[in-house]
């Protein structure tokens, strides 16, 4: 499979909040509670302690990008008054990362799978440690 096709497949799995390895198992039990392993293939999602700190880059980066484009665009076109614009962008800066949290984690898992692919846990030999 080509890198482009693999990238698209992992991106679709992340958007659907599915396991990056098998594409079937759901990543989350509830809005903020992530499963430790895939219910379908048994893949462990958190490779090491602090693994999901990388998902903050996706969350913060997209939030900052949207605000950095939208705020000046709306301010300088005069389509929104400055005071309501300030309050609405402040509300967006709080609400969007909360909503995007799950997708940021899923994208981080997909990015990790793309850069450092893992086979399904069932096909990997288990260690004695």
- The tally of strands reads 0
Q: How widely separated are the two ends? A: 34 Å
Compressed to H and E, one letter per element, the order equals HHH
Tell me, briefly, the overall form: elongated
Low-pLDDT windows of residues: 121-129
Reported for the largest beta sheet, the result is:
none
Rg estimate, integer Å? 18 Å
- The tally of helices reads 3
Mean pLDDT: 89
SS-based class: mainly alpha
State the helical fraction: 40-55%
What features would you describe in this structure?
With 129 residues, this protein is mainly alpha-helical. It has one domain (3-123). It is built from three helices and no strands. Helix 1 crosses helix 3. The longest helix is centred in the last third of the chain and has 34 residues, at 82-115. The chain is elongated and about 55 Å long. The two termini are 34 Å apart.
Set out the fold topology:
Layout: H1 3-15, H2 55-77, H3 82-115
Brief account:
The protein is built from three helices and no strands. With 129 residues, the chain is mostly helical. It has one domain.
